[in-house]
Design brief:
about 80 residues, mainly alpha, single chain, about 0% strand
Length: about 80
């Protein structure tokens, strides 16, 4: 898998976790007043967002640090 900048991964994690929590809260509290189908759908989308946040968190925690390309390194002067 391609190396992803850790700052980008942190932003993606926070966005997915935030929207996931917000979707679950809205789906369980506000949406049942309108229709039970919409509340189930909104809650399910919130769970999917939480799962995506967990996936990007797993990538963030398990990816190897980026190694410098040996071909682009300048030789040391003595």
């Amino acid at each position: 898998m391609k190396y992803i900048n850790p700052l980008k991964l942190k932003v993606l994690m926070m966005m997915f976790f935030g929207t996931g929590i917000l979707g679950i809260v809205i789906g369980l509290t506000v949406a049942p007043n309108f229709s039970s189908d919409s509340s189930l759908l909104i809650t399910f989308m919130g769970v999917i967002n939480l799962s995506l946040g967990g996936f990007f968190g797993w990538i963030f925690l398990t990816q190897q640090p980026k190694e410098e390309d040996k071909r682009k390194r300048k030789p040391k002067r003595k």
